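S.,

Sequence below, as promised.
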Amino acid sequence: MVLLIMHLQNTIPNYIPRGTPVVFQCVLGKDCVRMLDIYNPTAKPVSYWVKYEGVPDFVLEGEESFKIEAK
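The prediction came back faster than expected:
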């Protein structure tokens, strides 16, 4: 039981989001375009995914997840 608690104590903080979420706001009827630079400073590949919350009238173009290879 102690090993399980130690494992959870070391891994659970990695699932807490760091920083603030990226929020896109714009006026209705106008285009909303934002560019993000995402890089991978680690030696392992990193996978990201997009979660859209809102009215189902809008959709995401392309893939909802992507992978950044290590340098």
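Strands lie at 46-49, 65-68.

Coffee later?
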